[in-house]
């Protein structure tokens, strides 16, 4: 058992953890980062955001190539070499984890591989491949993230039942696949498998896919994908029986089939649970709730003065960019700066086809919070760029505070929605109102124009720019 002393230990090397560690080191704090994985990057880089986007890129190229046949250019049916697809995805991850390792080394952040648990208010014990290490620390940041939720009635140890990590491994392309849960992760993976040739069914307990987004936005998505996926809303899975020839799934609810349905694979994507409870934070005196969340104040401090927590385990939305900003705040506060995590909006993006993106208040959130809002939408059927790209299903929706006209939210559905969303995010953070956005000259023809045009519509102008 070796022992080290450090000013700061960061437990978990996901986007929150490595961002905090790097910022702390830049501010002159001696920092150790601990992760059970060999590589830095956490869920996002190793088995989340990045590998899924690499595969979604493959899916997009396949779908675009197929669509081009309608515009006079045929490439024929794609031949899929799954080994090559997999190794390309792995190379994307490898490139980025290598980059992080380099940045960590450059900053002299010490990386210890191993499973860490608190043993006291100033000690963490790490059990790794190179043995056990006791770390004595002045400050700690808990950044242990989250893991997929499993369901009790789903067979365990059957490799035909997979979670997002299993789906990203791409061992095969199942003929028929059920995505259990109509949230972002399930739909992104469903998009990939569909493009690669699977028949994909999606079952969602609630009355819309991606329940956090506004219904009018999601309705457009549901309409667009109705020929792609068989979506069963207000329906739940009550049993999965593993048989030799497949998984037999029993459904209950509005769109439930009468008989159990056979699938080659079931992807369970019903959410993620925080890892607050698995790091023995209580032994350091840190309060963890029943679900595994750790509560923090706006400086990311837990109830223990010198212990901070960030990322998925401090609450929704469980997103990488939220973790990164929280990580920066925690490191800066430890360095003695008076910084706070207090964003006006955190963007959410489903990198599906089409993409669905929103930031700030949704209309339904505004209602819940009693904020009086008005909305304006610009349908992409009137956008020259969308028409030229043959993707007119999109819509841009701006949400304004009624009394002031200030932009308080926005949502976009359509190709590249995730890239476009930044402008609305900036408008919200800068306190811009509808006139500010409407008077900003957007290049023509771009999809971004739709943000200006929706704001012009709100201002009362009748749009004359196709
Ligand atoms: P994590 O990334 O969860 O990292 C936590 C780390 O802590 C892990 O590496 C784990 O090994 C380590 N750890 C846990 N317990 C211990 C312990 N006791 N000892 C040592 N190490 C430990 N978010 C986005 O913003 N955009 C996306 O496009 C996106 N796509 C996603 C796609 C998928 C398939 C998944 C699963 C998630 C996706 N997410 C996305 C969510 C995103 O990955 C998370 O929000 C983000 O990774 C959270 O960062 P974090 O720093 O809280 O911790």
From TrEMBL:
Cofactor binding notes: Binds 1 FAD per subunit.
Gene source species: Lacimicrobium alkaliphilum
Gene3D superfamilies the UniProt entry points to: 3.30.390.30, FAD/NAD(P)-binding domain
GO aspect biological process, one term: 2-oxoglutarate metabolic process
Essential cofactor(s): FAD
Catalytic activity reported: N(6)-[(R)-dihydrolipoyl]-L-lysyl-[protein] + NAD(+) = N(6)-[(R)-lipoyl]-L-lysyl-[protein] + NADH + H(+)
E.C. code: 1.8.1.4
Active site residues of this protein: 444
Alphabetical UniProt keywords: Disulfide bond, FAD, Flavoprotein, NAD, Nucleotide-binding, Oxidoreductase, Redox-active center
Binding-site positions, FAD: 53, 116, 312, 318-321
Positions of disulphide bridges: 44-49
Name of the protein: Dihydrolipoyl dehydrogenase
Family in the record: Belongs to the class-I pyridine nucleotide-disulfide oxidoreductase family.
Binding site for NAD(+): 181-188, 204, 271
Domain named FAD/NAD(P)-binding: residues: 7-327
Remaining remarks: The active site is a redox-active disulfide bond.
Entry-linked Pfam families: Pyr_redox_2 (PF07992), Pyr_redox_dim (PF02852)
GO molecular function terms attached to this record: dihydrolipoyl dehydrogenase (NADH) activity; flavin adenine dinucleotide binding
Domain Pyridine nucleotide-disulphide oxidoreductase dimerisation: 346-452
Highest taxon, organism lineage: Bacteria
């Amino acid at each position: 058992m070796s022992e080290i002393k450090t000013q700061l230990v960061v437990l978990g090397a996901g986007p929150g953890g490595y961002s905090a560690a790097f910022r702390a080191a830049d501010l002159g704090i001696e920092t150790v980062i601990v992760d059970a994985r060999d590589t830095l990057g956490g869920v996002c880089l190793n088995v989340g955001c990045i590998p899924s986007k690499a595969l979604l890129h493959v899916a997009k190229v396949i779908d675009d190539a197929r669509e081009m046949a309608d515009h006079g250019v045929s490439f024929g049916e794609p031949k899929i070499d799954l080994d090559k697809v997999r190794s390309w995805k792995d190379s994307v991850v490898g490139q980025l984890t290598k980059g992080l390792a380099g940045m960590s080394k450059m900053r002299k952040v010490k990386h210890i591989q191993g499973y860490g648990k608190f043993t006291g208010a100033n000690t963490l014990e790490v059990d790794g491949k190179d043995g056990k290490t006791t770390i004595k620390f002045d400050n700690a940041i808990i950044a242990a993230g989250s893991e997929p939720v499993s369901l009790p009635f789903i067979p365990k140890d059957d490799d035909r039942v997979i979670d997002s990590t299993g789906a990203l491994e791409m061992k095969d392309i199942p003929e028929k696949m059920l995505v259990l849960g109509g949230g972002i992760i399930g739909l992104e993976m469903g998009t990939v498998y569909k493009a690669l040739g699977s028949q994909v069914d999606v079952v969602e307990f609630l009355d819309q896919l991606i329940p956090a987004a506004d219904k009018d936005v999601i309705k457009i998505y549901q309409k667009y994908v109705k020929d792609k996926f068989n979506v069963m809303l207000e329906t739940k899975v009550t049993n999965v029986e593993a048989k030799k020839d497949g998984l037999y799934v029993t459904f209950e609810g509005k769109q439930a089939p009468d008989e159990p349905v056979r699938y080659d694979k079931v992807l369970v994507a019903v959410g993620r649970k925080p890892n607050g409870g698995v790091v023995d934070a209580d032994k350091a005196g840190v309060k963890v709730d029943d679900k595994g969340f750790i509560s923090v104040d706006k400086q990311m401090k837990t109830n223990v003065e010198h212990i901070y927590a960030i990322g998925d385990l401090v609450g929704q939305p469980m997103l990488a960019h939220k973790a990164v900003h929280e990580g920066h705040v925690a490191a800066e506060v430890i360095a003695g700066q008076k910084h706070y995590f207090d964003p006006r909006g955190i963007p959410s993006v489903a990198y599906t086809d089409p993409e669905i993106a929103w930031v700030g208040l949704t209309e339904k959130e505004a209602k819940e919070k009693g904020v009086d809002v008005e909305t304006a939408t610009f349908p992409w059927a009137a956008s020259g760029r969308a028409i030229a790209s043959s993707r007119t299903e999109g819509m841009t929706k701006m949400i304004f505070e009624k009394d002031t006209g200030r932009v308080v939210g926005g949502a976009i559905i359509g190709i590249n929605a995730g890239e476009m969303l930044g402008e609305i995010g900036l408008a919200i953070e800068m306190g811009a109102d509808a006139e500010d956005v409407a008077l900003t000259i957007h290049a023509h023809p771009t999809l971004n124009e739709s943000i200006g045009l929706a704001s012009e519509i709100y201002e009362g102008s009748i749009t004359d720019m196709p």
